[in-house]
Amino acid sequence: MKKFLVIVLCLVILLSGFTVDFHPANAAVISSDPRGVVFYDDQKGNDALDYIKTTTQDDSFKKIRKFVDLGFIKLKTNKLNQSIVKDNLDSNDSLAIPVESLRGNMELRENVKDVLNNGNTVYLYGDQITLMEYEQLLGITGKLYIPDDRIQEFKTQSTGTPQLGLANKEAFNVIGYNLNGDVFLATTPSENNGIRGSESMYFRAILDNQIKILERQRPKQTNVSFLGIKMPFVLIENTASAASTSVTSTFDRNTYVYDDNGTTVGLLNTDWFLYREYNESDATYDWFTVETNYEATGYNGYNPYEMNIKHNLPYSPDGIYDWKPGDTSSQSAFTIAIPWSIEYQFSTSSSIAVNEQGSQTYDYGAWVVSHTWNTSHLPNPVRFKPATAWLSTGTLAAIDSDITISFSYDYTEGSFIHANNQLLSIRYDY
Question: Count of alpha carbons within 13 Å of 130, Cβ hemisphere only?
Fold first, then answer.
């Protein structure tokens, strides 16, 4: 009887017509466990959260408001004082605190260390925060920062414990970290550039990161429309990767672009994955591949216009082997096949042009990503995922990912706004 009903149902579906819409799950099926962010700040913090939750002048906040309104992100505020107690935070809660409050305040610093050691994510925000300072303030030296001034040591002598990190010396405006190794970095306009609302810029970066964490945790959903009724089905995907070649990356970086009035122009998000080939017998080199995932989104009438990307080997004993993709005047679906047995696909919502400009002589891969001849801007959002394979000497793998991007409103000369150069100095000490 059950078999008969299934057959009948299938025939009804086929005869009546149905549509299947594949897309990431909507917020209603994300998780039953909301994430909380506890912001410690003064009145400016309350004002910033109110602005994020209520402003209608900036469409880049819509997604944050949706997640907050649906209860998947809980916002909590506390006055800044000495008594930050780890027991007051749930396991899904994150702590956000201005870095200035920790500088010179040993008691508060120890309390925040307890929160981090309890398994919570700790975000420090403010002006001029370096990876080295974050490590020093929270007592986690060697977890984020691999300094280039010790490269010779790292290249010639194994530390015995593999460590994935960055050699970036420049400052950020938000740094988040937890003991699982998740790292978040964000750059916003400086407090001194005259743009209002610095606190709201920091907070929105933290909330964007929380949303991305939720989206990574959720399965993909299929919406099946049957007899005019949309029914959600969850697709279970195999996310396993080859353990022999993958070095997991949990670094996530955002660069925000604003106009002179403090309205969001665009966001550049970057994450990356590093792979090592273990099934090689090369006596001189170890074999690595980096995949960088760039996504640019324009807001409030702006669109991404052009990306300039470079994968550069900073140390001369190392040598580039291959880089992908190649040139195209118009393409929207890409398959990347690159050593060492790395293959993946990505697509853009409409076609883009790619001008590949790498050099084997000078050991870098490079790409200019622009709009096609019959369009005026890149797709919005636009995603691009290049990869570079190289031969690494010693016991430190090193490659720099460098990108600049421009956004435009009406594509006239005065409407272009350029994001600050975004550099990730990726290091793997092993």
Answer: 11
What value, to the nearest 5°, has the Cα angle with vertex 374 and ends 371 and 377? 35
292-302 tens-digit pLDDT: 999 999 999 99
Integer Cα distance of 233 and 399 in angstroms = 41
CA atoms within 13 A on the CB side of 297: 14
User: In whole angstroms, what is the distance from residue 215 CA to residue 380 CA?
Assistant: 19
Alpha-carbon distance 193 to 204, whole Å? Answer: 18
Strands 163-166 and 422-429: antiparallel
Task: Tell me how far the alpha carbon of residue 395 is from its chain's centroid.
Answer: 27
Helix (H, G, I), strand (E, B) or coil at 151: helix
Paired with 354 in beta bridges are 328, 369
- The phi-psi region of residue 152 (left if phi > 0; otherwise alpha if psi is between -120 and 50; otherwise beta) is alpha
Does the model's pTM come out above 0.90?
no
pLDDT tens digits, 254-279: 999 998 888 899 999 999 999 999 88
